[in-house]
Every structure is written in C-alpha cells, then in structure tokens.
Amino acid sequence: MFKRILDNLNTATLLFSSDLTLMYVNTAGEILLADSARHLIGVNAIELFKYSDPALLHNLHQCLSMAEPLVDRELVLDRMGQSFTVNLSATPLLLDDCVNEILLEMQRVDNHLRISKEEQQLNQQNTARLLVRGLAHEIKNPLGGLRGAAQLLNLELVDADLKEYTQIIIAESDRLQGLMDKLLGPNKPPDFKVINVHEVLERVRQLVEAEATGNLSITCDYDPSIPDIRADRDLLIQAVLNIVRNAVQAIEGKGKIILKTRIQRNQTLGRQHHKLAVKIDIIDNGSGIDPDIMERIFYPMITGRAEGTGLGLSIAQSLINQHNGLIECHSDPGNTVFSIILPI
Known about the structure:
Layout: H1 2-7, E1 12-17, E2 22-25, H2 27-33, H3 37-40, H4 45-48, H5 54-66, E3 70-79, E4 82-95, E5 98-108, H6 110-156, H7 160-184, E6 193-195, H8 197-211, E7 217-221, E8 229-231, H9 233-250, E9 256-269, E10 272-284, H10 312-321, E11 326-332, E12 335-343
Parallel strand pairs: 7-9
Antiparallel strand pairs: 1-2, 1-5, 3-4, 4-5, 6-8, 9-10, 10-12, 11-12
Helix pairs in contact: 6-7, 8-9, 9-10
C-alpha cells in the first residue's frame, strides 16, 4: 500500500541505510537517476553521487551524524553525463535514538529556475526597451527642428566654407535620425505566414557570405525533419542576420560559424508549454563574450566593441519575442552559442 503511494509521487524518494547504501527508490527516483531500481538498490551514495555536487554527500553525512533533518537547494546532480539542478530534503529515521535510515527527497527544479530567469530577463528587457523608445521619441522631435534649421541656414549662406559646417550638421542629424529609428524598432505588426526556417537561414548565409571579405567559413547542420512554422519571414531574417553579423565581428571575419537546427520537445517558453519547438543555434569560435556584460547583452546600447551601437541583439530579441520565442546565449572562449527557440 505505502509502496504504491510512494511510486506515484512526483518527488524522487530514496531510502539509505546507516552506511549510506541505497535500500529503496521510487519510480520518480528511477527517472531522476536515469536507471532502474534493480541496478540502483545496493549502490552506496558515494558511488551514486560521485560526479555530483559534493554538498549532496556532505548533507547525507551531516544528517547521519547530527540526527537532524535538513534542506538544501539548487544542487547539481550529475547522472549518465547529464547535469541538472535539484532541491533536496534529508530526514533521519531513528531506531533506539540512533539513525537507522535516511529518507532523501529530491525534486528537479531546472525548468522552474529557467522559467523564472527568462521571465525576469524579459521584464527587464521590456522595461529597458520602453525607456529607450520614450527617449528616442523625445530626441526625434528637436532633431527634426535642428536639421530643418540647418537646411534653411545652408540656403542663406554664400561662403562655401560655412556651408560645409551646415552640411556636417545635416549629415549628423541624419545619422542620429537613423539611430533613433533603430531604437524604435519595427513600426508595423508581424505578417505571419507559413515558412520554412531553413530558407530563412540560407538567405542569411548568402547575405553574410556576400559581405565577407576575410577567410570566413559558414557550415550548415540542418535537421530536415523540422516542419514549417508560422512567422514573419522578413523579421526572422533580420533577427538571425543581426546575430550572425555579430558572430562575424566576433571572429573578425576569419573563423568558423555553424548554423544548426534541431527539434525541441516539451519546451516551455515563458509560461507557455509547447509540445514542439525549433531551436536555431548560431555558433562561432571567437574569443567569447566578456562575462561582465553577459547578463546584459540583450539590453539596448550594451556592446563589447568600441565601434558598436549595441542595438543588434536587442532588436533581434524583440523580433523573436514577437514570435512568442526567445534567444538564449552561452559563451566560452572558442565556443559562443546563440540559440533562437521558436514554437512550432
């Protein structure tokens, strides 16, 4: 009766003896540890958790020595080469005032942490975007007046040397106007149609290769089984193009970029669950992103290059958000991956 109840719990439940040998594991525990109870029972905790966060074993020993329950959060459990984050609760079971067994409960929290982080990032990005858009609107109005005054002054002047100054004012006004337009982003709603994501990637590849001047290599690793998706083709091209151009700049036009697509199953985007999603990876072998700006790379005006505007990734994230998707980034020296995830 009790075994049937434990086997139907969603929380992984493990029972260890006083020498930390596994005596029982429920069905949720088998799923978490990626092995059957037949193989797991009789294995010592030292062997079971040898590649995991040392705090796991430390907590079991502490529970054993102090005979008091304890709780720990966000520990990394590594099983079969896969790592994930768990919260745990360890409870000593006493017999004649001595710890006879330890009941260990573990719950995987990767998805909860990821969803919370995504929501926080999206809220922060939306707030920053609204602030920048407001500032852009405020700047555009006097900028137009400044340009108009410079044009009128240019018509009144006879001296060519003086006209050169008004031309500079007009040219810089136009440059700032273009920057403001980029900050404001697209001014029309997306035109969703059924498209093939690989046609978008091939278009981007052709554009980038046409622009390339150095020894640039672009490799494609596509999953042909990915079905068509509903998206705005032009906006999607712009989003991917912004990321790929960033990658080209990161490798200074002479390195390797990989465009990769795969199917993702049971994907949660925001708080919306999708049975299927498409994942587009843009991978480069550049020097990587400065850790100091890693958490802010999707904010407007944040860039690691002196000559950059810091708008490309912000605009790309905004365009993908309009498709109910998101962009994630992982960066190490020699391996930077931007992942676009779109619901199917």
